[in-house]
Design goal:
It contains 2 helices and 5 strands. The chain is of the alpha+beta class. It has one domain: HU Protein, Chain A, CATH 4.10.520.10. Strand 1 and strand 2 form a beta hairpin. The mean pLDDT is 93.
């Protein structure tokens, strides 16, 4: 886990074959609003981690779908 955290913190993606890919994405600065006070505010740019599962994992998950 520490290796994964360090890798993502450095901005690199992680590919786990048969499982999926963790990607670091840049989000631009954007306008936001506090719903409690209705105050407008600029939210700073930031990095987020996204996950895209592999086709194999998706197939395995959908195998057990209950109807």
């Amino acid at each position: 886990m520490e290796i994964m955290k360090d890798t993502l913190a450095s901005g690199e993606d992680i590919l786990m074959s048969g499982f999926g890919k963790f990607c670091v994405k840049e989000k631009a600065e954007r306008k936001g609003r506090n719903p409690a006070t209705d105050e407008d505010k600029m939210l700073p740019a930031r990095k987020v981690v996204t996950f895209n599962c592999s086709g194999k994992l998706r197939e395995k998950i959908n195998e057990y779908r209950r109807y």
